[in-house]
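Data follows
____________
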Amino acid sequence: MITSVNDSARGAQSLGEAEAELASRIRGEYREMPGLRLSPEQATRLWSLDRGTCALVLNQLVETGFLRRDRDGRYERTHGGY
């Protein structure tokens, strides 16, 4: 488990090391592509993840305020996303 919080793993202390690395990668994708909005199925395919892992990481990013879910259930970056 991640025990310290830094910029690359901010808010991911409850994730395992592999999931924290995925969260960092996903944050990078959202930063590089402003306006990116993905359904859970699209995210699973884009990052070649199983549904459970993808949901775990994306929901953690929602909980930390980096992402939010729109009314259609797609994940998008919040305006204040770190």
